[in-house]
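From the pipeline queue, job 12 of 40. The input is one protein chain; the requested action is below.

Action: predict structure.
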Amino acid sequence: MCNSFFVKNFRAFEEIKIPRLAKVNLFLGKNSVGKTALLEALYLHLHPNKIRAIQDILVKKDEHLSDGGERSSIGSIVRHLFHNHQLSDFDKEGIVFAEMTKKEKPIKNKLTEIKTTIDEDDDEVLEVVKNKNKNYILLRDSFDDFHHRSRFMREHKPWDTEISGNLKFVYSSNSSSVDIVRMWDKISLTDKQDEVINALQIIEPNLTGIKFEEQNRRHEGRVAKASIDGEIVPFKSMGDGINRILYIVLNMVNAQDGYLLIDEFENGLHYSVQEKVWKIIFSLAKNLNVQVFATTHSSDCIKAFGSQWERSEEKATMHRIDYKNKQHTAMPYEFSDLDDALSTNTEVR
C-alpha cells in the first residue's frame, strides 16, 4: 500500500506532499487545481512499466497530437509531463515521485525519477528510474513510432514488458466497451460477477444478470446487455449512472491486491445514489485489498463519502488540493472537519 506521496516537477506541481494515505482516499478541490494530475502521478509511480504508463497518459490526453505534425519527436511530446511543459536540463533533477518517511524524506526504494540525460552513445534520452532499474527513450525518435510499436527503445536497453496488471484508472470521460468486455471476461464464472450485479442493482433493482452478445456484421466485437425482468436491454440505453457504476466496479474487482484511481467520482452519478456507491467502494477495498484514490469537486460526493468515512475513520483520508502563492498544498481533513470541507466546494447536481 502507498502510505504517503511526494511529487516534484510534474505537470502543474512544482512540489506537493501528502504525508498520510489510507485504504480509501478522496482528493477535493476546485477545477484545474491539479487533482487529475495527482492521479496521473500516482499512476506513473505505481505502474510496473513506467514507459508504458507515460505513453498511456500522453495518448489519453491527446497530447501526442499537440504539435500537429505526424512525426513529432518524443521529446516534443513528453515535455508536457514536466513542470511548465519544459524538459529538465540534462543530468539535472527532473520529475520525482516518492513515498516518504515520517520526517517527510523520500524512501530510496520507493522512488521514481524521470529526467533527460546523455547516454553512452552521446544520444539525448529520457531516463526513467525505479529501484535502480533504468529504461531509456531516444528523445529524437518519432512519437508516432513510440505510440504504435511495441519495441520503441534502444535494442541494448532494458525493457519491462509487464502491463498495468492490478492498477486501474477510471477516467472522468466515457468508458470503452472493449475495456468492459475484457474486464468482464477476466471475472467470468467467479464470485466477483455477483459483486458487479449487486452494485448495478443500486440503480436497477430488477437487474438479474449481464450478458455480452456479438454485434451485427457491420460491427465487430461484443456489446453489454442486461437482463431486467426477463427482458434483454442494451446497457447503453440505460443511462450514464448505471454505465458509470458498471465501469467503476468492474475496474475495482479486477484491481484485487492493487490500486484503483477514479477521476471525478461523481460523473454520471445522481447525488441520491452516491452514498450507496461509496458503501460498495469501502466494502470492496477491504475485501479485495484494493487501495482507492478518487477526486471530486462536488459537495454531494464529499457528503456521501463522509457517510462511510464516519464508520471507519482510520481506513480513509480526505485532502483538499489548493494552489496559493504559486504553491500547491494538500490540506488533510479529519472527519470532524467534514462540514468545513462541504462549505468549500460547489454543488454540481
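Job complete. DSSP finds ten helices and 15 strands in the chain.
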